[in-house]
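USER: For my understanding, would you kindly supply a protein sequence with its structure tokens?

ASSISTANT:
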Amino acid sequence: MDRILIRGGNRLSGKIAISGAKNAALTLMPCALLTDEPLTLRNLPRLADVDSFGHLLNELGASTAIEGTRPTDFGRVMTMRTGQLSSTVAPYDIVRKMRASILVLGPLVGRAGVATVSLPGGCAIGNRPIDLHLKALEAIGAEIELAAGYVKATAPGGRLSGGRFRFPVVSVGATENVLMAAVTAKGGSVLENAAREPEIVDLCNLLVAMGASIHGIGTETLEIEGRDRLHGATYKVMPDRIEAGSYACAAAITGGDVDLVGANANDMRATLDALVEAGVTVEEKKGAIRIAAPDRIKPLTLSTAPYPGFATDMQAQFMAMLCMSSGASVLTETIFENRYMHVPELTRMGANIEVHGRTAVVHGVDRMTGAQVMATDLRASMSLILAGLAAEGETQVNRVYHLDRGYERLEEKLQGVGADIERAGDG
């Protein structure tokens, strides 16, 4: 199994190209199931999760073709076409690897009137039920059955009716799933207290490009008028705001000065605001965001929240950065109840962190030291990489398959700005 070796202490300087967003890509790809015409996605990141989702689409009858990119390029262009669905069953052996697989449920029942999807897997970061997905689908006309680890959604008469649903709590995945189901319903649908993440906006923009009628994009109330059919489209995946935020933390923790090329500041305002509060210089330039570190990072008090609040997917990276701050920081995780699994590993490297339920108090230290550590989930993996970049000596990060799910060629990008980092196999 591969591992990442880091010899810390180098100041990062230069430019890092930001890839297409993982969380957007995995939401846009299932839209290929909504039409029999080609859907082409540009700026698609080269990630294990993207490959897994492509395999799932193949199982359902979609063809996938990679166009015009060299293996050495970042990003790629993929054309998907589902002339006919060969199956409406998403099997356990694929779905268990990736929670985002549940996002085929909405488009399948929307197009075929029936869908059977295994209950999903993914990162072990706490209880992540899909009850809101199912309740929202029921509200727009689906009948739901759960049996033997699978969920089956059926549209009576072969087509969803449309309807109204208010999410009791904001749910990104449930908003995405019911959106893709509602765009081909017989009637209109209204989704209240819908998620407003940039990835939701990206999905809405693609669906509109395919012929859908959606009003209120970017707000908490989405109004959808069902269409008889959607057509194909060509669409560019938005830049990855979490990747950009992660590399911003890398620049800050190493005392660096880095341009994040292609990052969209408007999509990551809460992250940038927190960096500024920590004393980091944030300069919005044409086509890039410059991140320049202060002499010493200031402590912060942060609480994760749905967009436009501070993203839960940035909590672990900020924790690593704040390990080297000038005081005590307080982080509160409100989204997932088990997202501090990186704390023991950071402690092995010299961090001083106390966890009290969903709150972590991070006491800044003057130095951290390299150690052998183990990644537990995607964002936790990145927190260990960040700590290794700043630590004295060598850090070995094991179980890096988590990183490959969400960061495109991470070691190459970091090498390009001066990090001493490499990937090694067991041999």
